[in-house]
Design a protein that fits this description.
Thiol Ester Dehydrase, Chain A; 11 strands; 5 helices; alpha+beta; eleven-stranded antiparallel sheet
Length: 247
């Protein structure tokens, strides 16, 4: 299979390049459902250009995206079993939200004059309006070893059946992993790999998304994230590798 796709500017992460979670989820969405149900590992090889035609190539159970001759990223089946901590309640996550790095007007960021850590990020950007960005604002929560976000997705992010599509779910799972390290005053750099599993359709009006630190190996920062519905059921989770400085 060969086709083309574009990542629109609204789906940026770092300014001018695609949001890692969204791009990873977009790649995962091209794998057959029976394969994706067991888990998908997406590896980002180069920054994703925006509003540029990317060529998608599928060989057996691998999907890859190219910009010209440059391999942007690839996704393959990968079983994922991850210990997921019990999340805080929606009310606890909402109460903690004002302390999110996404809403900190004093934090060093990549867009001078913008609000928070990544002002223009599709997932966590506070300067991105509702219905354009996901606005997932993860923050430390007392009694939880990590961060959590109270998330009410805009109707613009639902499909005709009312569910959140795969690329949006992966995008929502993205930034809380980095924010778990920010809560410990550690900057991780860029998302390099994300392995995720969607356990159930993401349907509803209110969710809790958590992020927690797993381990550090040199310049690799491992994190976990998970998404829970209003009944506290885990709908999706991921394991991430962020590439950053050696501390």
């Amino acid at each position: 299979m060969r086709t083309t796709v574009e990542v629109a500017e609204r789906f940026q992460g770092p300014p001018g390049t695609g949001n890692g979670g969204y791009v990873s989820g977009m790649l995962a969405s091209y794998l057959p459902d029976p394969i994706a149900a067991r888990g998908v590992e997406a590896t980002l090889r180069a920054p994703t250009p925006l509003d540029v035609s990317l060529e998608l190539a599928r060989e057996a159970s691998r999907i890859a995206a190219y910009s010209g001759e440059v391999l942007i990223g690839e996704a393959i089946p990968a079983a994922l079993d991850l210990h997921v901590p019990t999340p805080p309640s929606y009310a606890q996550a909402l109460a903690a939200q004002p302390h999110s790095a996404a809403l900190n007007p004093h934090i060093e960021n990549v867009v001078p004059g913008g609000m928070g850590f990544h002002p223009v990020c599709f997932c966590c950007g506070a300067d991105v309006p509702e219905g354009i960005g996901l606005r997932v604002f993860a923050a430390p929560v007392a009694g939880f070893e990590g961060v959590a976000a109270a998330w009410r997705p805009h109707r613009a992010f639902r499909d005709d059946a009312g569910a959140i599509p795969t690329p949006m779910v992966w995008a929502a799972l993205d930034c809380p992993g980095q924010f778990a390290y920010l809560a410990a005053n550690i900057r991780t750099g860029l998302l390099g790999r994300m392995t995720a599993k969607i356990l159930a359709p993401v349907v509803g009006d209110a969710f809790v998304i958590t992020g927690w630190r797993i381990a550090v190996e040199g310049k690799k920062y491992f994190a976990g994230t998970a998404l829970f519905n209003a009944d506290g059921e885990c709908c999706a989770y991921s394991k991430q590798v962020w590439i950053g400085r050696r501390d």
